[in-house]
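G., the chain you wanted modeled:
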Amino acid sequence: MPAKTQIFIKSPTNSLKTLALDPTQSKTLTLNQLKSSLLSLDQPLSSFYFTLNGKILDDSTQLSNNHRIPPFSTLYLRQRVFGGGGDGGATGAESRDCYLNMYAEKKPDKIDPNEQRLSKWCNCALSNEPLKEPCVIDKLGNIFNKEALVHALLSKNLPKGFSYIKGLKDMINVKLSRVPGVEENGDSVRFQCPIAGLEFNGKYKFLALRTCGHVLSVKALKEVKTSSCLVCHKEFSELDKIVINGKEEEVAVLLERMEEEKAKIKEKKVKKGKNGEVGMGKEDALDSSRVSGTKRGAVENKGLEKALAKVEGNGKVENVKVLNGNVPVKRFKAADMAPANANKEVYASIFTSSKKSNFKETYACRSLPLGRN
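Predicted structure as tokens:
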């Protein structure tokens, strides 16, 4: 009697079964019939398939005399997984409008809060460049590189957010203390509190004193309760303290204080004349002349130029000409650069077209009008 053929079958439930087939039974038995004998009636046959050594076997494969399924082989009965990518299912954008609406609004970039904090405390609030002495602050506690701020005032390029800064009187020179023993990393310099040694990086609260300009940590001023600067011993009041890069509530207090100072200055400007009429004081005359672009504007711009020259250290301001509060820009004309014996009109035509043309531009080339090709 011929020996039976043994085949091992492993089902999805990880149960291993041994199937012993005699030669007569295995002649007509296919994998599809084998599936029907192993599965229950409520399980569809098309949802399962056999694999051997990682290869899928067809359901019509016979078990007898088949070199692909040798004796003692292990057949794996696996279940098909329907769906997934590329099956023609929903994409979430069945229409073009739906797809475009997904990208209609730009999502905010994720910003590391630590990097944002360091950038605010270690960089200029205007140019975003690393802080470099000399530095100044405004009356709201924003810190700047003095050179960048003066350049912006001279060129009238100051952003609207800093429109309250009109000139040198709105800047407060500050004195930052460098971290000893730390070399400069490129253009960046590390600063600290000269008393407590806390680093100027946003983790600790710092104040600037208007009277002397020294920048100290709040911790140092709390530990040593005094009304004089801990560095130069110059007297200061509570109103002389300006919080650097303060919170919204602290900035609101500084803003209210700045408005009060402006109101007091306006009150001082109004003076009564001898006849009892309200006249215009010296400060009002200077302010009105600034508006009209006369002497006051020239004096203030000259002060800005001197401040910029002092920052740059060369004693003069290059490439900046200020007249009556404006920066004139002369338009280049080729005719002005013509040689002595040259025709200015002919010389200018080398660089630009000096004659107007009635020809219209073509759709193919804007620089090749009709009639010239």
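The CA atoms of residues 37 and 270 lie 108 Å apart.

Shout if anything looks off.
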